[in-house]
Specification:
mainly beta, nine-stranded antiparallel beta sheet, elongated
């Protein structure tokens, strides 16, 4: 292949691997933009009249790899935070129930922890709690009796159907290897594969995530710091010579 002039207008599809084990951990094929920036320090030796620059020294090679996405997953959050995904959780549940003869029934599939309940009459929600509340299985008993509408708050114990990511003061993300693939178009209107490898990247811990009920879908911005691996490798850029079929 001679000199190939090309342009790009497509995002990279990414496969992210654990750096230590080399095993794939996330197929990120839904990004809106992916970008890499290579950085380095330049210092100069000066000399002579006018103090001109005479010699350049290079160092502190690095850079960043950034991803912008409106599609997300629990696995993506776990990758960026270092949190492990578990299948149990606790949650403060609010229920609107009706009592008859001092008893109320919690819907099937909801388990509330004993001792966690706070109950209010429906017309005094968050007011004065009802005294003498017990729970056994799905049955809540008001020891002083009562009929009508109540609001019940209790800690729900979730034993399945959930992905929980716990971020603690000792939770840190792991280094990864990033494989990216996109397409480029040459001046002769031929399309070629373009691939890149970031040999060692460290997820930055700070990233913003919000919820909104108007405007465009929320975008998550992720940044990885590019490091050198044990062999000094940082980034490979591969322009494939075989055109796309």
């Amino acid at each position: 292949m001679g000199v190939l002039n090309f342009a790009n207008r497509e995002v990279c599809e990414l496969i992210i691997c654990d750096f230590a084990t080399k095993k794939p951990v996330l197929n990120l094929d839904y990004a809106n933009t992916t970008a890499q920036e290579l950085t380095g320090e330049q210092v100069y030796a000066y000399g002579g009249w006018g103090h001109p620059r005479r010699v350049t020294f290079y160092g502190e090679k690095g850079g960043t790899f950034t991803v912008s996405t409106q599609i997300m997953s629990a696995e993506l959050f776990a990758l960026m935070t270092g949190a492990e995904i578990t299948s149990t959780a606790k949650w403060l549940k609010r229920l609107e129930l009706t009592a008859a003869d001092g008893t109320m029934t919690v819907p099937e599939g909801i388990t509330l922890a004993d001792g966690s309940l706070t109950v209010y009459t429906a017309d005094d929600d968050m007011g004065t709690p009802v005294e003498g509340v017990n729970i056994a299985g799905q049955t809540i008993t008001l020891t002083e009796g009562g009929d009508g509408a109540y609001v019940v708050y209790g800690i729900q114990e979730i034993d399945g159907g959930v992905k929980k990511m716990s971020i603690t003061s000792k939770t840190f993300p792991k280094a990864v290897t990033i494989y990216g693939e996109t397409i480029i178009k040459a001046e002769d209107d031929t399309t070629y594969p373009y691939r890149l490898i970031v040999y060692k990247a460290s997820p930055q811990q700070q990233f913003n995530f919000s919820f909104s009920n108007n405007g465009d879908p929320v975008t998550l911005e992720l940044t990885f710091d590019i490091l050198a691996d044990q062999d000094g490798n940082m980034v490979d850029m591969l322009l494939m010579e075989e055109e796309m079929e």
